[in-house]
C-alpha cells in the first residue's frame, strides 16, 4: 500500500509539473513574443549548451512533427527547418539567423545518431584474416608502432611486443570487432609520436614523480617498500581495445554529446570519435601511472575510476576533451 501511494504521488507530481511547465512556456511566449526555440538560440551561445537544449525542447514538444525532427535524414534537414518555422509561425525573413542556428543544431543531433550507427556497424564486423583490407590494416599497425623492427611472419610471437595476447591478433578483436583495429591504427598513424611513447612506457613502466608532500606523509617502512616495488605496465593493444569499449559506451550513452557538440560545428564524424579515442588512450596512460597499481589485476578498478572521471568532466557543457587535434581546430575555425 505504501509503495502504491508513493507511485501515485510521483505520477501526480509528473503530470502537475508537465502541465505547469507548458503553462509557463505559454506565458513566457506571450510576454516575450518568442517561442522556446527562439529564446534558446538567441540567449545561448553555440555549442553543447545550445544544441542539447534544442534537442530536449524538440523531443519534449507535444507536436509529433517536432518530436520526429531529431530523427530525419541529413538531406531532409532544410525542409525540416522550414516545417518548424511554419509550425511555430516564425517569419524566416524577420528571423533569418534562427534558421541557420536550428540547422547547425539539427546537423549535430542527427549526425550524432548516425555516428552511433556507423560505430556500431564497425563494432559488429568481426576481424577476418581472409579479408585483404583487414590484414593490410593490421600490418599497418605494426609498421607504425615498430617501424625499425620488420615483422618476421604474420603468425608470430612478435605481436606480443605491441600488446596482443598471442601470436595471432585476430582473436583479440572479438569484443570490439573492427572498431578496435580502426582506433589503434588511427592512433598509431596520426598521433604516432605519442602512440610510440605510450607503447614504450607500457613495456618499460616508470613510477610517477613523488611530490615532497607525499614523501613527507610516507613512513620509513612504506618508503623502503616503495623503493623495491616494481612499476606495473600493461598490454598496449589489449588496453587499446578496452579503451575503445570505454569510448563506445560514452558515445552510446550520450555522454559524448557535450564534447562532440563543442568541437564539431556540424555533424560529428568517425574521425571525431577516433580523435577522442587517442585522447582517452593518452589520458588513461597518465592516469595509470598516477594510480600506481600493485599489479595488473587492478586494471578494472583503475579503468572504472578513470571512466567516472571522464563522465564528470563531460557534465560540464563547456567541455571539449581534445580540442588540440589539428582536424578539430580546422573544424572549429569553419
UniProtKB/TrEMBL annotation:
Question: Could you tell me which InterPro entries the record lists for this protein?
Answer: ELMO_dom, ELMO_domain-containing
Please name the GO terms that the record assigns under molecular function: GTPase activator activity
* Top-level taxonomic group: Eukaryota
- Every copy of the ELMO domain together lies at 133-314
Please name the PANTHER family in this protein's record: ELMO DOMAIN-CONTAINING PROTEIN 1 (PTHR12771:SF18), ENGULFMENT AND CELL MOTILITY (PTHR12771)
- Protein name (database record): ELMO domain containing 1
- The gene behind this protein is ELMOD1
Amino acid at each position: 500500500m505504501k509503495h502504491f501511494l508513493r507511485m501515485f504521488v510521483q505520477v501526480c507530481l509528473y503530470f502537475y509539473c508537465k502541465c505547469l511547465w507548458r503553462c509557463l512556456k505559454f506565458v513566457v511566449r506571450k510576454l516575450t513574443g518568442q517561442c522556446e526555440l527562439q529564446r534558446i538560440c538567441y540567449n545561448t551561445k553555440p555549442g553543447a549548451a545550445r544544441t542539447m537544449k534544442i534537442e530536449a525542447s524538440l523531443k519534449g514538444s507535444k507536436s509529433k512533427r517536432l518530436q520526429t525532427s531529431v530523427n530525419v535524414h541529413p538531406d531532409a534537414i532544410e525542409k525540416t527547418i522550414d516545417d518548424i518555422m511554419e509550425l511555430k509561425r516564425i517569419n524566416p525573413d524577420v528571423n533569418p539567423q534562427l534558421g541557420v542556428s536550428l540547422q547547425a543544431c539539427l546537423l549535430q543531433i542527427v549526425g550524432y545518431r548516425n555516428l552511433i550507427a556507423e560505430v556500431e556497424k564497425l563494432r559488429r564486423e568481426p576481424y577476418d584474416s581472409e579479408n585483404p583490407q583487414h590484414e593490410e590494416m593490421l600490418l599497418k599497425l605494426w609498421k607504425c608502432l615498430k617501424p625499425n623492427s620488420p615483422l618476421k611472419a604474420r603468425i608470430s610471437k612478435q605481436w606480443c611486443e605491441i600488446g596482443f595476447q598471442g601470436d595471432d591478433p585476430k582473436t583479440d578483436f572479438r569484443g570490439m570487432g573492427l572498431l578496435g583495429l580502426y582506433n589503434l591504427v588511427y592512433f598509431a598513424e596520426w598521433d604516432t609520436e605519442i602512440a610510440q611513447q605510450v607503447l614504450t612506457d607500457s613495456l618499460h613502466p616508470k613510477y610517477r614523480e613523488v611530490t615532497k608532500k607525499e614523501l613527507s606523509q610516507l613512513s620509513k617502512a612504506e618508503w623502503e617498500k616503495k623503493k623495491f616495488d616494481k612499476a606495473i605496465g600493461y598490454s598496449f593493444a589489449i588496453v587499446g581495445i578496452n579503451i575503445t569499449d570505454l569510448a563506445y559506451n560514452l558515445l552510446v550513452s550520450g555522454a559524448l554529446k557535450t564534447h562532440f557538440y563543442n568541437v564539431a560545428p556540424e555533424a560529428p564524424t568517425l574521425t571525431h570519435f577516433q580523435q577522442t579515442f587517442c585522447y582517452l588512450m593518452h589520458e588513461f596512460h597518465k592516469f595509470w601511472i598516477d594510480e600506481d597499481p600493485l599489479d595488473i589485476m587492478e586494471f578494472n578498478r583503475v579503468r572504472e575510476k578513470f571512466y567516472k572521471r571522464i563522465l564528470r568532466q563531460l557534465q560540464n557543457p563547456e567541455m571539449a576533451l581534445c580540442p588540440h587535434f589539428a582536424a578539430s581546430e580546422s573544424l572549429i575555425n569553419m
